[in-house]
């Protein structure tokens, strides 16, 4: 059950960047930037989707590298699978941004596209997302090692950490 899984997650000490959970003020980051494949992205999205719905769920998706000649198609399929989950926002960067662009060209507004923010530069993910954040969300940051999405963490810390918390006074431990 989701509640039991969430409690159990609090006792797990994963390796850095492999499902690592960090509190930044009242914001919860799930850093899963060590590798990315369709299966590992699905697992990360499942984890995010199954957390208790106490707050909004956001996924930042960076390119899955080494996918071969079907890389754009694989990114499209994975993005559409992400939108089948109860996520509030998905930031599509890198090859996921290209996939979102192609889906829009192919079919206009695809189902769930209003929940997709697009940036071709992975480091632009924070900039497109920041205006939409309240500061109490759970944010999955998922991408291949070569993209180094953990570079986004200092931006979250600056905006939502104890000294820069914008989610209100007393922002500390909490979230999911």
Give a description of the structure.
By secondary structure, this protein is an alpha/beta fold. It contains 6 helices and 6 strands, in the order H-E-E-H-E-H-E-H-E-H-E-H. Strands 1-2-6-3-4-5 form a 6-stranded mixed beta sheet. Helix 2 runs parallel beside helix 3 and helix 3 (about 70-85) packs across helix 4 (about 95-105). The radius of gyration is 15 Å and the shape is globular. The two termini are about 15 Å apart. Residues about 165-175 have low confidence and may be disordered.
Q: What global shape is seen?
A: globular
Distance between the termini: 15 Å
The major sheet is characterized as: 6 strands, mixed
Oligomer: single chain
Strand order of the largest sheet: 1-2-6-3-4-5
Instruction: List SSEs in N-to-C order.
Output: HEEHEHEHEHEH
Using only C-alpha atoms, the radius of gyration works out to 15 Å
Beta-strand content bin: 15-25%
Q: How many β-strand runs?
A: 6
Low-confidence stretches: 163-176
Helix/strand-derived category reads alpha/beta
Q: Average pLDDT value?
A: 86
Count of alpha and pi helical runs: 6
Residues in helix, %: 25-40%
List the helices and strands and how they pair.
Elements lengths: L1 H8 L10 E5 L2 E6 L5 H13 L6 E5 L9 H13 L5 E5 L1 H13 L8 E4 L5 H5 L8 E5 L10 H8 L16
Parallel strand pairs: 2-6, 3-4, 3-6, 4-5
Antiparallel strand pairs: 1-2
Helix pairs in contact: 2-3, 3-4
């Amino acid at each position: 059950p989701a509640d039991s899984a969430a409690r159990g997650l609090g006792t797990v000490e994963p390796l850095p960047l492999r499902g690592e959970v960090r509190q930044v003020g009242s914001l919860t980051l799930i850093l899963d930037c060590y590798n990315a494949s369709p299966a590992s992205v699905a697992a990360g999205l499942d984890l995010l989707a199954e957390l208790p719905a106490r707050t909004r769920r956001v996924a930042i998706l960076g390119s899955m590298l080494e996918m071969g000649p079907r890389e754009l198609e694989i990114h499209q399929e994975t993005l559409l699978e992400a939108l089948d989950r109860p996520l509030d926002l998905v930031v599509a960067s890198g090859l996921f941004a290209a996939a979102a662009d192609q889906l829009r060209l192919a079919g206009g507004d695809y189902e769930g596209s209003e929940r997709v923010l697009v940036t071709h530069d992975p480091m632009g993910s924070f900039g497109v997302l920041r205006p939409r954040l309240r500061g109490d969300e759970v944010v999955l940051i998922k991408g291949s090692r070569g993209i180094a999405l953990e570079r986004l963490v200092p931006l979250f810390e600056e905006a939502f950490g104890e000294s820069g918390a914008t989610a209100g006074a007393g922002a500390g431990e909490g979230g999911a």
